[in-house]
Amino acid sequence: MNRFPLALRFAAAAALSFLVATGASGQAPVAAPTERPAPGSVIKAIALDASVEERILALDPEHITDADVRSTLAAGPAPRIMLFHGGVYPVHLLMESFSRFLTGMGYPEERIRDAGDGSLSRSPYEPSDR
Questions:
Q1: Distance separating alpha carbons of residues 121 and 94, to the nearest angstrom
Q2: Can you give the pLDDT at residue 31?
Q3: Element housing 36 (H / E)
Q4: Which parts of the chain sit beneath pLDDT 70?
Q5: Interatomic CA distance for residues 105 and 70, integer angstroms
Q6: Is 14 exposed, middle or buried (0-12, 13-18, 19+ CB in 10 A)?
Q7: Which of 32, 71, 96, 97 is least enclosed, having the fewest CB within 10 Å?
Q8: How many Å apart are CA 4 and CA 126, to the nearest integer?
Q9: Cα(59)–Cα(12) distance, integer angstroms
Q10: What is the distance between the alpha carbons of residues 69 and 63, in angstroms, rounded to a whole number?
Q11: CA-based diameter of the chain, in Å?
């Protein structure tokens, strides 16, 4: 007969602990709104030498060689690659290995590394406001 009140107390304590834990995190601050870039302004902002642009446009996408990547494409603009690893501990090692593969193929390392802290991959559980 004494078990029911003990179980009820335990359930009430667990529920109260859950409510306190969820309320203690607070609300995330709202980021300030940013202006949308005008159409075409991002492409116009890329300063590209005319000879490099001609060499890039002259490449055959079906037959890209190692020399094409290292000489022609390396001279052009490279988009930033964001590598995300899963939540299990050793998965970040796979992303670091993949980033070494990309840099070994000629991709600029500064376009793979995080601009803020220089890491090679990001955790999906980190806050996005960094």
A1: 10
A2: 59
A3: none
A4: 1-4, 15-32, 130
A5: 8
A6: exposed
A7: 32
A8: 42
A9: 69
A10: 11
A11: 88
Report the alpha-carbon distance of residue 25 to residue 101 in Å, rounded. 39
pLDDT of residue 6: 76
Bridge partners, 84 (sequence order): 122
For 58-86, the pLDDT digits (tens) are: 999 999 998 888 888 888 888 888 888 87
Cα–Cα dist 90/48, whole Å = 40
Q: Give the closest residue to 111 by CA, choosing from 87, 82, 84.
A: 82
Task: Provide the residue type at 93 as one letter.
Answer: L
Alpha helices in 25-108 (DSSP H): 41-45, 50-57, 66-67, 91-104
Q: What is the pLDDT of residue 121?
A: 86
What local confidence, expressed as pLDDT, does residue 28 receive? 55
* Rg of the chain on CA atoms, in Å: 25
Neighbouring C-beta atoms of residue 99, cutoff 10 Å: 19
Conformational region of residue 26, where left means phi above 0, alpha means psi within -120 to 50, and beta covers everything else: left
First-to-final CA distance of the chain: 55
